[in-house]
Specification:
alpha/beta; Rossmann fold
């Protein structure tokens, strides 16, 4: 498998680009250098740009934040679709899905919110303030001190450093950061209580890790999907996921952007959400070696790209309940999405 330099090595083959945000265009704090110029160039070539993010925010709220960084609707992209949008649409128009999963009419379902409520705007869902009365527990990103959920700063009970690809196999109650903080342990104790009560978790972001800016540097942190994974693995709890890699968000993005009949390429930094999702949706994919993949690949010096993909698939992807044992390789691998501004 050959590594291509940037998106322009394959751009002429596609009409529409579905593009992930974190790790492709955005490093957790700022847009990658060259991103805006690359998007403008693609637009000038007549390409349709659809940003497809696993954020639990509604796109209208996410768009405002990125606009402050210079990313403009019309100028740099045509549509913005989020996992929060998908969940919101399902709650408004297909709430029977929850009736089947929970065994109760949606109008009687009570939800306790552990995070922002964007996706539930105007849906009429009933709110619960205590675990015991809730039918669903909606979980957003871990909000313990971000330093304590950094995945490159974790140690086990014996003081051994836990590598990023190992954290899914570890009991969070036994992990701490270099300062002794136990942010993940706090979540583990909450999840243990929820499991004892037989509660179902609802997640609108299946990502297990993402880049985030902490103390003026970029670090991988645990995100909602990690909480869902831990709940399933250690407590045999039930989790409802919405977002990539599930086909529904790609179908939703195609509908919103009128791209059903287009030749589409999905560009992402994660095998088990972006690339697997593209495969589920029947479209081509490109994995960028920035973001999460880049963080993991840097530890695999001297190995071929095929070997790196297999290792990453086995170490993280194969552990997740929603992934097959053998993840599909991307159609392409790119050093980065953006054209090098130099």
């Amino acid at each position: 498998m050959r590594i291509n330099e940037d998106i322009f090595s394959v751009a002429n083959l596609y009409e529409t680009f579905f593009i992930d945000m974190y790790g492709v265009l955005f490093d957790g704090s700022e847009l990658y250098s060259g991103t805006l110029a690359t998007l403008r160039k693609l637009k000038d070539m007549g390409k349709k740009i659809v940003l497809v993010s696993n954020t639990s925010q509604l796109s209208k709220n996410a768009m405002r934040g990125y606009a402050e960084k210079g990313l403009g609707l019309g100028m740099h992209y045509d549509y913005f679709v989020t996992a929060g949008d998908l969940l919101h649409d399902i709650l408004l128009h297909h709430s029977d899905i929850f009736t089947k999963q929970i065994g109760k009419e949606f109008c009687t379902v009570k939800c306790l919110f552990m995070g922002n409520m964007d996706a539930f705007e105007d849906t009429g869902i009933l709110k619960s303030d205590i675990y015991e009365n809730a039918d669903l527990i909606y979980v957003a990103s871990p909000r313990a001190h971000y330093g304590s959920v950094r995945l490159d700063n974790l140690y086990d009970e014996d003081g051994n450093k836990v590598e990023i690809e190992e954290f899914l196999s570890k009991d969070w109650k036994k992990l701490r950061d270099s300062q002794g903080r136990q942010g993940l342990a706090e979540f583990a104790l909450q999840l243990e209580k929820l499991a004892a009560l037989g509660k179902t978790l609802l997640l609108s972001n299946p990502d297990v890790l993402a880049p985030f800016r902490i103390d003026d540097d970029k670090h991988p942190v645990a995100t909602q999907g990690a909480i869902g994974f831990y709940y399933e693995k250690f407590f045999k709890g039930k989790v409802l996921y919405f977002g990539k890699p599930f086909k529904e968000i790609f179908d939703f993005a195609k509908k919103v952007s009128s791209s059903e009949n287009d030749k589409i390429l999905m560009i992402g930094d994660t095998l088990w959400t972006d690339i697997l999702g593209a495969h589920n949706a029947g479209i081509d994919s490109a994995l960028v070696m920035t973001g999460i993949s880049g963080e993991c690949f840097r530890k695999m010096q001297g190995r071929s790209i095929a070997e790196k993909l297999k290792i990453l698939s086995n170490q993280i992807g194969a552990r997740l309940s929603y992934t097959p044992q053998n993840l599909k390789n991307p159609t392409y691998v790119l050093k980065h999405f953006y054209e090098d501004p130099r």
